Amino acid sequence: MDAAVFIVSAVVVLTGAAGVLVARNPVHAALFLVQTLFGVAVLFVLQDATFLAAVQVIVYAGAVVILFLFVIMLLGVDRAEDLGIEPIAGQRSVAAIVGASMLGLLLTVLLVGVDGPTGARGANAALGGAEDNTRRLGEALFTDHVFAVELTALLLTVAVVGAVVLARRVRGPLQPMPVVTVASATGSDDASATGSDEATATGDDPAAEADDEGEAG
Amino acid sequence: MSAVTTLAGMGDRAVLAADPLLRGDIDLGIVGIVVLKVVVAFALLLVSVMLMIWFERKLVADMHNRIGPAVAGPFGILQTLADGIKLFFKEDLIPDRSDRAVFKLAPYLSLVPAFLVFAIVPIGGDFSGDGTVTWFGERTYLQVADPPVGVLFFLALSSIAVYGVMLAGWSSGSKYPLLGSVRASAQMISYEAALGLAIATVFLTSGSLSTHDIVATQVEGNWNVLATGVVPFLVFLVAGTAELNRPPFDLVEAEQELVGGFHTEYSSLRFALFFLAEFMNVITMSAIAVTLFLGGPSGPILTDTLGWVWPILWFSVKVFAFLFGFVWLRATLPRFRYDQLMDLGWKVLIPLSLGWFLLIAAMRVADAEGWPVAPVVVVGLAGMTLGAVLLSGAVAKARAERLADLDATEGVDA
Do residues B243 and B195 make contact, with C-beta atoms less than 8 angstroms apart? Predict the structure, then answer.
């Protein structure tokens, strides 16, 4: 029974992962990612880590991928991209090397490792079994690891505040004339292609740039 | 036979073993009971959706001084069935510019979570004892499943339901559905936070995530609605209504602005699936509210013979009260404006439920440490009031600056 569930969810995980790589449409790729996350959640349940399974679905499928989809939809990049061009030079060969070495590392651990790392229900049994899983996890997080938890919370707060600061419209004395803003907004679109006069004229005005950012955010 | 013996070996697995039915050996009879429970829950939900749609139309008609559906069956009670048959035989249109695979997938992503949530709702059982009923000589919970993460399962599924709405709008390849789905997903994600925080206070008072345990801590009228101090219940109701995209939060399908919202391009059976999911969600949300705050099926058992009927009756009465309330809201309140909706969610409900959660947590600590409760509550409420004043001050200042900024810009433009 365990083996059957494992095989089915492993197939779900792997086909999802392959789909993320193969899909040409970003929305389809995001959906395949959700499929993978679901498969992993089932694997968590199989390991008696029910709380992790629930959080996996709530946080990753319910929030993170939804935000991906939001960005994809709002930016309108939901058409198939031309994959012939590498966005960053040398990216693919580096990715291939890193991927191959990760696979090698994984296989080494699997084949050479003293205790096979699979089927580690023991990891959760140490926490007192699934019935108590959530309680024990909470106790561990808020007693032994409370510093790390607080630090993570602080990090997230800093990230949120930082995002707001970066996206916020600059006002007051720094505010440029609206006419300039419009010129830079239209100019920056074709600035990369032609380097038009407006763009060069306003390009060194930090306030105007910040204003652009604000509207985009 | 080998499958059955492996199942029996899993009997002590904690994932399954909360329900006494699944403790020890599992034979074919027990598998049969589980299948029976699944089928009953499925059929019950479908029939109640049918009745709910009829009830809503009839009640809204009464409130509008109309007659409402009156032709099909006595009091028009078969109207939904007739509508379903009509939808079934309509032409199934798929827009030319749609993303076909996703377009076909989306209705199921709405419908399946709506069905699954009902699996964790205890709809009966004698909670003055251990909340079980005896069927065919086996003791069992009157719910399909009681996972140890219980209510988190509900939250996980409600976050999956967002996908149905979002992808339906996107895959239609048309702008009104896309606008509707962006609105819908923003709204559902925003209110999920407030919903989760309101539910978290229930975890504090009940000390468990499992729906069965949450009901078991609310016996003899010790309902969570009072134990958590009413506020989380109200937050849950508002956030739940928004999560359901019910009026007054139905901006998702605001006809005057968006034609039909995310399901504009859907017709025939696929539209019927969205419709079904929407009403099913109303019922499951009511059932979850009853389970979390109003003691679920617990209530006095008045007769010895057929004693198991009473909890089911209490549960139905409570759920029915919620359903009436939802219809009443729809008939009474005008729709929110979009910015009002976001303001209510982010600037009122989330801070309020977060503050209340901290207050309840402080009371629990005071209880455990033996401190007097009254000063803790007073200090906590004072802190919340201070926070509310600061927050509303900051919001008011930001608004004033924004308006001043707007005026200045307009002046230059003119």
Answer: yes
> Is the residue at A90 inside a domain?
no
Domain of residue A70, CATH code = 1.20.120.1200
For chain B, helix, strand, coil in percent to 5 are 70, 0, 25
Closest CA to B238 of B388, B349, B336, B331: B349
Portion of chain B with pLDDT greater than 90, in percent: 8
User: Which amino acid is residue B205, in one-letter code?
Assistant: T
The end-to-end CA distance of chain A, in Å, is 50
Q: In sequence order, what are the beta bridge partners of B132?
A: B126, B141
B148, A130: Cβ pair inside 8 Å?
Answer: yes
Whether the pLDDT of residue A13 is over 90: the answer is yes
Please tell me whether residues A7 and A59 are part of one structural domain. Answer: yes
Q: Which residues 160-189 in chain A show a CB within 8 A of chain B?
A: 169, 171, 177-179
Q: Containing domain of residue A166, as a range? A: 145-217
Residue A110 placed within a domain = no
Whether A136 is covered by a domain: the verdict is no
**Can you give the pLDDT at residue A149?**
92
**Contact between chains at B152 and A51 (C-beta distance less than 8 A):** yes
Please state the ipTM of this predicted complex. 0.80
Greater model confidence, B105 or B408: B105
Q: Are B257 and B265 in contact (CB under 8 A)?
A: no
Among the residue ranges A193-197, B32-36, B267-271, B388-392, the one predicted with the least confidence is A193-197
3 state SS of B298: coil
Find all residues with CB under 8 Å of B280, minimum gap 6, and list them: B45, B49, B111, B114, B115, B118
The reply to whether A5 and A62 lie within a common domain is: yes
Q: pLDDT per residue over A30-65, tens digit each?
A: 899 999 999 999 988 887 778 888 888 988 888 888
Task: Check whether residue A73 and residue A15 sit in a common domain.
Answer: yes
Interchain contact, A31 vs B102, CB within 8 Å: yes
Of A1, A57, A177, the CB nearest to B156: A57
Q: Which residue has the tokens 């994809």?
A: A72
Domain boundary among A131, A157, A173: A131
pLDDT classification of A104: cutoffs 50, 70, 90: very high
